[in-house]
Design brief:
CATH class of the largest domain: Alpha Beta
Structural class: alpha+beta
Radius of gyration: 19 Å
Number of strands: 21
Number of domains: 2
Helix content: 25-40%
CATH superfamily of the largest domain: Clavaminate synthase-like
Number of helices: 10
Distance between the termini: 26 Å
Largest sheet: 8 strands, mixed
Length: 327
């Protein structure tokens, strides 16, 4: 560990969790050493392999106290310092706006709405491997981004509901969503089809949907998208373990607006409905195992999207958290 560069704190934040005989500290919190540079960008470039080893072990890193990161442009520089390729946001559900470079707003749904736990873009075949968040304006009240380790959820669900998990592994899931043409900022899944497929041409939209394995059914005022069957349980080969990689709880409890009924938004891959009591118990397990560290201005949170699910709590404005997705 580069002692002259970072202090790694794991005790100052009571929300942190430890797993596997304390071999995992979730998340790892990295702050600048008082005797070293406060330039997060150069620190990343100099010690990228070390930081990636921490991320691989613990799944999430919170960089806190680096005053060199105070704007969206600074955040974009931090993302680029890691050198990961950008992932275009094609097929995602959340309404987002490009801010600068590779930086977008996070889900723009109203502040009184919770965003349930999910892996980013787990409902489509092409998803980011890394997700960055940056707190530009810390919330007045609430607004945390709870995170939870995916393999912990898989292990607990497998133990409690083995038949359900076996069926998930066998059949996967089908996600169904109805989109208008334009974005609906009042909805957590309000991204219109023009934004979703980055085109106003229906033929081009159909081509891009087909590449995702998604079926489109056009209506008078929008389109019904059907994705799947798509795996709900994956094997993380880099860590040699199974993970709870899906948006099942998010879809079943949160994909609701004027066009969408959440109960119909996700089914087993054979089309049969999901058992409500299991979904709600899974949500309870997610909440119990999650870590929710209150945002501070300048925080940068890096998630391994294979290892970690995330969500968003309701908040009282102001709050501005930005995001960037990487391959």
């Amino acid at each position: 560990m580069p002692e002259n560069l970072f202090n790694i704190e794991s005790q100052d934040l009571p929300q942190q969790k430890r797993y596997h005989n304390d071999s995992i500290t979730f998340p790892t919190v990295i702050i600048p050493n008082t005797q070293s540079t406060d330039d997060l960008k150069s620190s990343i470039r100099d010690h990228k392999p070390y930081l990636e080893s921490i991320l691989h072990t613990n799944g999430a890193i919170l960089f806190r106290g680096f005053t060199s990161v105070s704007s969206a442009s600074d955040f974009n520089d931090v993302v680029e310092a890691f050198g990961y390729d950008e992932l275009p946001y094609v097929g995602g559900a959340a309404p987002r706006t490009n801010v600068v470079g590779r930086v977008f707003t996070s889900n723009e749904s109203p502040p009184d709405q919770k965003i349930p736990f999910h892996h980013e873009m787990a409902q489509v075949p092409t998803f980011p491997l890394k997700v960055f968040f940056f707190c530009e304006v810390e919330p007045k009240i609430g607004g945390e981004t709870p995170i939870v380790l995916s393999h912990i959820i898989y292990d607990k669900m497998k133990l409690k509901y083995p038949d359900f998990v076996d069926k998930l592994e066998k059949d996967g899931l089908i996600y169904t969503r109805v989109l208008g043409e334009d974005d609906d900022p009042s909805s957590p899944i309000g991204r219109g089809w023009v934004s979703t497929f980055m085109t106003k041409d229906k033929a081009v939209a159909e081509e891009r949907a087909e590449k995702l394995g998604m079926k489109l059914e056009w209506t008078d005022d929008g389109v019904k998208t059907v994705m799947g069957p798509i795996p709900a349980i994956k094997f993380d080969g880099t860590r040699q373990r199974k993970i709870w990689f899906n948006s099942m709880v998010a879809a079943y409890t949160g994909w609701e607006d004027a066009r969408n009924d959440p109960v119909k938004a996700v089914t087993f891959g054979d089309g049969t409905p999901l058992p409500a009591h299991v979904i709600h118990d899974c949500l309870k397990i997610l909440e119990e195992e999650s870590v929710a560290i209150p945002w501070q201005k300048g925080d940068v949170l890096l998630l391994d999207n294979l290892a970690v699910l995330h969500s968003r709590r309701a908040f009282e404005p102001p709050r501005r958290v930005l995001a960037s997705l990487c391959k």
